[in-house]
Automatic annotation (TrEMBL):
Keywords: DNA-binding, Transcription, Transcription regulation. Belongs to the LysR transcriptional regulatory family. Residues 1-58 form the HTH lysR-type domain. This is LysR family transcriptional regulator. GO terms for molecular function: DNA binding; DNA-binding transcription factor activity. It comes from Lactiplantibacillus garii. One of its GO terms (cellular component) is protein-DNA complex.
């Protein structure tokens, strides 16, 4: 099977219509439709449901999409390895994932420095919570992740980064907490809370914030902060988050840290037992040297 057909399939799955995929791929619609029909016939089952000019993946299609992405990513990395083996200059795409936090302020200038040193490497960044980043590492769709604690040391190599973030709450201007330098965790009893949905983080926060036998009153959960900010601004509950995230000015929310202080650590991680591309190896080596420099300073 030609990889070209697999690219056709992924493009249709991403865009949702034959016409949109045909425009992006510069392929005639009848040709594209015929190629997908032949692919489905070869597999012996439909990959798409045709619904009012929309192409919606079937259950089999969703499974196929995941594995095709992994195959093409692995093939691209294999091509990079071969190219780099006889080339002193690093080339290819480096796929990384990073959580929302002030670790980005530390990472961004170092990625720029790395790119200047290796201008033929394209840095593909993926913003998500720690769970999604680890899932993509496990699927082979990312090579490197920047995540927060806790870490599964059995699956990942982990290097501590010299960046901490502080937990607290984001509250509207009408909250009396805006006049305080910090919020005592005991004040959260009976307060409606919006918390991160990542299970390990939520468990850690619950153990730390919960007082006595009374459970936390959780009214909402989030993975990335954007929608949660506006839910908090609209009055759903108090947003539990870290200081390093950027609160949109139009949300009217203010960050207040917890007392006693509770910090979030950050780690550079990559999968154990999985070969890395030359650009990924080079970036890890560079970031390790930067960590040593930061600590010595």
């Amino acid at each position: 099977m030609e990889t070209r057909i697999l690219h056709y399939f992924l493009t249709i799955a991403r865009l949702g219509t034959i016409s949109a995929a045909a425009r992006e791929l510069h392929v005639a619609q009848p040709t594209l439709s015929r190629q997908i029909q032949q692919l489905e016939a070869q597999l012996g089952l439909p990959l798409f449901n045709r619904e009012r000019h929309r192409m919606v993946l079937t259950k089999a299609g969703l499974t196929y999409q995941l594995h095709v992405q992994q195959i093409l990513t692995a093939l691209e990395r294999a091509n990079q390895l071969v190219k780099n083996s006889n080339n002193a200059e690093l080339t290819g795409t480096l796929s990384t994932g990073c959580v929302e936090s002030n670790v980005t302020n530390w990472l961004a200038p170092r990625l720029v420095h790395f790119h200047h040193a290796h201008p033929h490497v394209v840095i593909d960044t993926y913003d998500a919570d720690g769970n999604a980043i680890k899932d993509r590492l496990d699927q082979g769709l990312l090579e490197i992740g920047i995540v927060s604690t806790p870490i599964n040391a059995a699956k990942y190599h982990a290097v501590r980064l010299p960046v901490n973030d502080r937990w607290g709450v984001a509250v509207p201007a009408t909250s009396p907490w805006t006049k305080q330098a910090s919020v005592d965790v005991a004040a959260l009893v009976n307060q409606p809370l919006i918390v991160p949905h990542r299970s390990l983080v939520k468990t850690e926060l619950t153990d730390w914030l919960q007082t006595g036998d009374q459970p936390l009153r959780i009214v909402g959960e989030y993975n990335l902060l954007t929608n949660a900010v506006y839910l908090a601004a609209a009055g759903l509950g108090t947003l539990v988050c870290i200081a390093g995230v950027t609160l949109p000015p139009d949300s009217g929310l203010t960050f207040i840290p917890f007392f006693p202080q509770h910090q979030l650590k950050h780690f550079l991680i990559w999968r154990k037992g999985v070969p890395l591309s030359a650009p990924a190896q080079a970036l890890i080596t560079f970031l390790k040297s930067e960590i040593t420099t930061s600590v010595s300073e």
